[in-house]
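Task: encode each sequence below as structure tokens.

Item 1
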Amino acid sequence: MSSGIYAIAHIGDFKLFVGEASKLSQKWPPILTQLNNGTFPDPVLQQVWNTEGGKRYFSFHTKTEIISDRDILGIEELLALG
């Protein structure tokens, strides 16, 4: 998979944490490691992760996956990013 935009969705709270990576297929496992270790660089996402109990409340999505779901609120703004 090539470079591009990804989103970490906080399930149940309708929040997306959006980022960009050069190798999307290799991005999620290191993010999980950082979040589990308490070392993720975004303090807001890290706090939500700590509070909500981990990965069962989060999912990882690429821009391609998000584009196909027109029910996402604010999809137009997300697509305008890249």
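Item 2
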Amino acid sequence: MATDDFFRARLEQMIDMRHALAVLATRMPWAQIEASLAPLFAHQDRSGRVIEDTDLFGPTLAVAGAGVSQRGRPRLPIRLMVALLYLKHAYGESDESVVERWAQDVYFQFFSGQVYFEPRLPCDATQIGRFRRVLGEAGVEQLLKSTIEAAVGMKAIRPAEFERVIVDSTVQEKAIAHPTDSRLLEVAREKIARLAQRAGLQLKQTHQREGKTLRRRAAGYAHAKQFKRLKRVLRRQRTILGALLRDVQRKMVTLPQQAQDQLNIWLQRAERIRTQRPHDKGKLYALHAPEAECIGKGKARQPYEFGCKVSLAVTHRQGLMVGARSFPGNPFDGHTLAAQIEQTTVLLQDLGVKPTTAIVDLGYRGVDHEVAPVQVIHRGKHKTLTNTQRRWLKRRQAIEPVIGHTKHDNGMHRCWLKGSEGDALHAVLCAAGFNIRWLLRAIVRLGLAALLLYLRSLAALAWLALHRSATASGRSTAIDHRLAFTLR
């Protein structure tokens, strides 16, 4: 076969082109994705800086560094980086593991637009994080939108199905340890002592040995349910943390203003941890992730989860994800419906359709006026619903396994990205990963349907041939019964 490189075989000759991932690679709108994301990665036009100089005619002013700079190494292809994000969340990989798997998997490389097999890492794992930050929330929503358009282009779903959506909320947990008071106090003490020493401050005492001892004693008392002794340990931990904070505040005045500003951020967080009590509101549950909220969803196995609330929207009939949005601050479920419907409408606007019916649970009662003219259906309206609407309502719980798969298979069970922006990016990318898995299953389903239709057509042709021969020989009745039983 003809090849551009005589000594290397093309990927399309090495793989089965009927594989679901290979088929999806040819059906995704890569040109549209690259065109929409290219402005985000264009070199910026810089205004430059004014430099004073002197020549034979006197002082002059010159502008240096102006214009579009072409410095730096060339960017990696947008399709490669987008494909890595898709594959990462479709198969539940991390940034490090997805690049390692890419170097071994020929189907991953074909999906990324490679022509020849490359036995090397496509990029450093940190480049995926930088690419994700440049995309922003609007960029990752474009990736989710492309999966929806690919499903319509493959005729795996009809545009009319987007008019009815099922909406529900879940908790996207933050990658933090369980926030016990003893652990938070010890982490705050250790962090402040380390930052102060790094800044060059000579502390009177860091309480390192006593802090570790108190942390170990608190764990033992909590396990034995000796709560009076536990309270004494917590009181002592707050005392030594307060002494450390006051020592740092007295001595940090000698530092530069920039160093003081950076240190003040951690001092304020440590002070919040020291002063907060079990029944306070607006508590700090992680020193490095102040955006984490305590959310109770009524689960017997896990009464409280620490992260942010995420709203998901799927199509009513086939369960394709058409919306995913994070909501910091733990708002009431009903107050998230309008924003979720708005996002879904934006993602579907190029398809010429928008949601007209939202099927929800009882947590969304009383918000009909906020999402009008979209009709809200829940079991609290059971007496006023038509028979068709009651039949629609029976599929409301179909979103529950979708949430479970998104968490278990696509990485939504734990968010490792920084800040509220990281929560928003991670939620949308997990939804895009779910849609990739949905598309792979749809390709298999449509391929089997085509195969079954082909086999039925062959059986019909065989039946016609046998029927003609049997008619000619006078044995048509018995053969008709036998063939009818076989075709069933």
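Check on item 2: The chain is about 50% helix and 10% strand. The mean pLDDT is 89.
End of task.
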